[in-house]
């Protein structure tokens, strides 16, 4: 018997399942037997008195969970941090536990009322290293951890719980004598698992299976080499035996109904202090969000981002706009277990338009490129939104905004004099040695335009179930026609990306009309659209189908190769037009009307046509050049080219994506651009409606 170990318990005289505050309690209200609970508790008490000195705190009527003494507080030496229960159902236990600690000579530290922390249920000392493992995610707040580090003078390692069934750290994590650790890895997020693996060597880790986890095998009382537990599988017993532990099972099924077992029923009140430096790596920042926070779901997204990223938050201020057009403002304190997690979360919050509050604003951190085409590790990944970076004392606008790039800072010089720093979005492959790249998340601000209130309803479905879609497609076509006309009339720019489906569905006549009408200023596609367009122009078929009669022509599948061959003979599409070989079609109209086009090659291309750019880096550059200055991009049934274009287009450019496959449309609107409209319909039909509508609008415009 080790009488230096003292354990606190609370008899179960008032124990019952009276309410539901964890998933184990569901369906168990008043379903536990007081008699059996007394009997099981007494048996545990007997076992423990053989191992340690057990002291009692008297149970109080009306506080049935007080039996779970582990949640009284967290003891180290002669200090205790008293619990602040999350649920009101347990908050009434606090003064009784406080009285016991005070009566027993402990110095009691109390947390702010609004900061939940559930004692030794969520905080466990490592038995070798002496540091404190502290859980958060369900009951205890991450922000309570720095207080623990401070008051108890220990190093605190924060672990995030992600499975509701394991809502307290001691339900899935148990440090054992000699630095062993028994735990259930799936109860933690990836970051926490990494942290555990960094601190506890592989031979000391005992990862248990789900079956043991749900029998509360981790909810163990460990004194020296004895492990007292509700139930353990043979495999687990063996694993423990091999490491020199004796397992004592004592049934605690009545307490499992409330979500607790052996460890929950006890609190070790002799916890010798060791010399570990007082540290907590927890970081916090205050962010400011402004805009149509509720209408656009921006607050929800921001708060979800913080939680799923492994942080926690406190809303410090929330000013709700009074009228529909008013914007709202929120100030949120973000906490994260360390700098890496914080940077990750902040990166995402910045993408949502959050800014660090002025007093927290620090210039952007820069790191040099040391290998051409490779960015420093934690480089900031750009979005489609206009971005500014704080370099020195001034915010500078990032040029060439696009998503998935890095921000390179260079110095502009003119006539030999320094014009100050310039920030530019660059693809990784374009980074050059010596350039500075923005890293981390400080000093970066993205501007998000207020999303239109009708955002999510903008995806019109022509054939989708449940929508009176025909009319809705007409409505959206009306809007697009109106936009096209205004853009054309003011000398703006419309870019079309198109897949071969445009030709197969009979859309080429209409696309031709659009080009002739001056509505198209650049055409982007692949080898196929040009091949099928030329095949149709020369032979009247598209992939061997007679486009007038809608039937396949004998031997027609060879037609497209013949078309390719002919163009190859003339060296280019333009040459074939000039020589009078190609006399109609979409490509012909482009050449005739001086509409620049770019055909990006791919692995499946036949031919290719001499115009097809098979060097994809060149092709991306051509696309980027043609998109520059676009007001609207009409994406017609080409997932590959539309998404490619979406990736290089900054926010603010309207995108209309037409595809029969809703997944493509959704994928494009998911890039977060508020200006994108999705139309799920047959592209041939769409183009026909569009041309009709345009001819109505312009009067003089002739519909072919
Ligand atoms: N019903 C209690 C609760 O949900 C059970 C507490 C279990 N205690 C523990 N240390 N895990 O709060």
UniProtKB/TrEMBL annotation:
Keyword check for NADP: no
Ranges where the Arginine dihydrolase ArgZ/ArgE-like C-terminal first subdomain domain occurs: 386-477
Names of required cofactors: NAD(+)
Signal peptide residues on this chain, from the entry's feature table: none
Domain LOR/SDH bifunctional enzyme conserved: 285-385
UniProt keyword terms in alphabetical order: Lyase, NAD, Nucleotide-binding
Domain Arginine dihydrolase ArgZ/ArgE-like C-terminal second subdomain positions: 478-690
Pfam family, one: Saccharop_dh_N
Catalytic activity, EC: 4.3.1.12
Any one GO MF annotation of this record: ornithine cyclodeaminase activity
Xref: NCBIfam families: TIGR00300 family protein (TIGR00300)
Annotated protein name in UniProt: ornithine cyclodeaminase
Taxonomic path: Bacteria, Bacillati, Cyanobacteriota, Cyanophyceae, Leptolyngbyales
């Amino acid at each position: 018997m080790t009488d230096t170990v003292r354990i606190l318990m609370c008899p179960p005289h008032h124990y019952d399942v009276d309410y539901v505050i964890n998933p184990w309690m569901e369906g168990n209200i008043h379903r536990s037997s007081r008699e059996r609970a007394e009997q099981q508790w007494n048996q545990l008490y007997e076992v423990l008195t053989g191992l340690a000195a057990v002291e009692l705190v008297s149970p109080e009527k009306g506080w049935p969970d007080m039996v779970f003494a582990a949640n009284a507080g967290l003891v180290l030496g002669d200090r205790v941090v008293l619990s602040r229960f999350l649920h009101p159902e347990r908050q009434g236990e606090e003064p009784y536990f406080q009285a016991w600690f005070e009566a027993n000579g402990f110095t009691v530290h109390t947390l702010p009322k609004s900061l939940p922390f559930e004692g030794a249920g969520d905080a466990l000392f490592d038995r070798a290293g002496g540091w404190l493992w502290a859980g958060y995610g369900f009951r205890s707040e991450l922000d309570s951890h720095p207080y623990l580090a401070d008051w108890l003078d220990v190093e605190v390692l924060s672990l995030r719980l992600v499975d509701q069934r394991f809502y307290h750290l001691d339900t899935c994590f148990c440090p054992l004598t000699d630095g062993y650790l028994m735990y259930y890895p799936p109860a933690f997020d990836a970051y926490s698992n990494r942290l555990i693996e960094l601190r506890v060597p592989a031979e000391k880790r005992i990862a248990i299976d789900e079956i043991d986890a749900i029998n509360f095998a981790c909810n163990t009382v460990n004194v020296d080499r004895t492990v007292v537990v509700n139930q353990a599988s043979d495999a687990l017993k063996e694993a423990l035996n091999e490491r020199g532990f004796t397992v004592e099972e004592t049934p605690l099924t009545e307490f499992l109904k409330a979500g607790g077992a052996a460890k929950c029923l006890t609190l070790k009140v002799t916890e010798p202090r060791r010399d570990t430096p007082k540290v907590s790596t927890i970081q916090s920042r205050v962010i400011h969000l402004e805009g149509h926070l509720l209408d656009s779901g921006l607050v929800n997204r921001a708060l979800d981002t913080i939680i799923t990223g492994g942080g926690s938050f406190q809303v410090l201020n929330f000013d709700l706009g009074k009228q529909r057009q008013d914007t709202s403002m929120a100030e949120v304190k973000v906490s994260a277990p360390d700098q890496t997690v914080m940077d990750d979360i902040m990166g995402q919050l910045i993408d949502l338009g959050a800014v660090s509050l002025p007093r927290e604003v620090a210039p952007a951190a820069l790191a040099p490129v040391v290998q051409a085409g490779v960015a420093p590790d934690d480089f900031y990944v750009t979005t489609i939104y206009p971005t500014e970076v704080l370099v020195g004392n001034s915010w500078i606008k990032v040029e060439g905004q696009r998503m998935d790039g890095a921000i390179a800072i260079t110095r502009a010089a003119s006539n030999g004099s320094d014009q100050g720093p310039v920030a530019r979005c660059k693809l990784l492959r374009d980074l050059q040695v010596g350039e500075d790249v923005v890293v981390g998340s400080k000093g970066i601000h993205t501007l998000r335009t207020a999303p239109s209130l009708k955002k999510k309803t903008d995806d019109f479905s022509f054939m989708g179930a449940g929508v009176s879609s025909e009319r809705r497609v007409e409505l959206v076509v009306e809007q697009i026609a109106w936009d096209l006309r205004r853009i054309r009339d003011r000398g703006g720019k419309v870019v079309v990306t198109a897949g071969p489906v445009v030709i197969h569905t009979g859309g080429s006549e209409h696309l031709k009309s659009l080009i002739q009408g001056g509505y198209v200023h650049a055409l982007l596609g692949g080898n196929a659209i040009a091949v099928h367009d030329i095949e149709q122009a020369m032979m009247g078929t598209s992939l061997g189908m007679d486009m007038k009669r809608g039937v396949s022509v004998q031997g027609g599948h060879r037609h497209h190769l013949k078309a390719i061959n002919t163009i190859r003979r003339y060296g280019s599409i333009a040459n074939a037009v000039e020589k009078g070989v190609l006399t109609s079609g979409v490509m012909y109209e482009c050449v005739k009307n001086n509409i620049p086009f770019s055909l990006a090659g791919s692995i499946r291309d036949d031919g290719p046509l001499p115009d097809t750019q098979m060097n994809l880096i060149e092709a991306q550059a051509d696309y980027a050049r043609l998109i520059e200055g676009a007001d609207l991009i009409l994406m017609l049934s080409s997932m590959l080219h539309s998404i490619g274009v979406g990736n290089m287009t900054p926010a603010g450019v309207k995108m209309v994506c037409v595809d029969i496959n809703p997944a493509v449309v959704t994928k494009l609107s998911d890039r977060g651009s508020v200006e994108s409209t999705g139309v799920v319909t047959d592209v041939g039909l769409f183009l026909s409606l569009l041309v009709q509508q345009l001819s109505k609008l312009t009067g003089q415009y002739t519909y072919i």
